[in-house]
Amino acid sequence: MRRVISTTILPVCLALATGQYAVAHISCATNSNAGDMMQETIQKPRELLAKKSFFGRGNCLKVMFNSAGEFYLHLGKESKQGWQWSKLKLSDMELGDILLVIKGVKESTSFFHKFNNSSQQLWVNRKDALFFKAGDVNKQLSFAEAEVLRVIIEGFLLVSAKLEARPQ
Known about the structure:
Elements: H1 9-17, E1 22-31, E2 35-43, E3 48-55, E4 59-66, E5 71-79, E6 82-90, H2 92-102, E7 108-115, E8 118-126, E9 130-134, E10 137-141, H3 143-165
Antiparallel strand pairs: 1-2, 3-4, 4-5, 5-6, 7-8, 8-9, 9-10
């Protein structure tokens, strides 16, 4: 079987070498009539669009989202060895559930996540304040901080929808 390599490989390699682009996906498809065809999907590097940290006494909740439409929540606690973080990538539906807790429509929600071969659950509830917990790391937000988080999440959901609407 004859191998067919696309003539776009050289420009792709040059773009990667100069740091202009990152490879998002490479797949090979076999077709007995056409030989092996390689398809490349190239995208610009993920750019951090927003990041906000809520520090407390020995703990922190960080939220961030990027140009790939990914939203991350990190819960951290300070120890003698430095900061230890529980890192979670949240879906739009999970963010919607968190918004319902922030707005007082629901009292609590929880999600189960796998990240880097480890599993953990995120709990979010509201009583006297908004409370996040993942493993043994937790962070309480005042209702004023929860309002800031609400604005960030709603802003992310709008940006994410605009990113999805862009032509590929």
